[in-house]
Specification:
25% of the residues lie in helices and 42% in strands. With 132 residues, it is an alpha+beta fold.
Length: 132
């Protein structure tokens, strides 16, 4: 009986661990507000090439002075399939990011497009993603 109980507990623990990544991921609508579009013109501070989403950190001139924004991109795998490399953007690059602001009003956005200052589009969110 004791070995059956241990086996049952091990199965439950395994199921719980497998479900953790699914719980950690979020939907677009849960975090970002389609009714709050943003256009961020700024300078790249850092690019995080991490899963499940890559991030661009930007210095943006706001109404009350400089602000530091973070813009969520797709996964590194998606970015690579669309021609990006981890060094496609570098600190100091000037970019324009369009997307949607976080529901909580923080300086966080889901990037829809990323363009260089000269207008060259380097990122466009796919229509099959979570973003509207």
């Amino acid at each position: 009986m004791r070995s059956a109980l241990i086996a049952f507990a091990a199965v439950l623990a395994g199921i719980a661990m497998l479900s953790m990544p699914a719980l950690a991921h979020h939907s677009f609508a849960a975090e970002f507000d389609v009714d709050q579009p943003v256009e961020l013109q700024g300078t790249v501070l850092e690019v995080e090439w991490v899963n499940p989403h890559a991030w661009i950190h930007l210095a943006v001139e706001g109404d009350a002075g400089p602000e530091q924004w973070a813009a969520e991109l797709g996964s590194p795998n998606l970015l690579m399939r669309n021609g990006w490399r981890s060094d496609s953007l570098k600190p100091g690059d000037e970019v324009v990011v369009t997307g949607h602001r976080a529901r909580d009003g923080s300086l966080l956005a889901s990037a829809r497009t990323v363009r260089m200052k000269d207008g060259e589009r380097i990122f466009n969110a796919g229509s099959s993603g979570e973003q509207p």
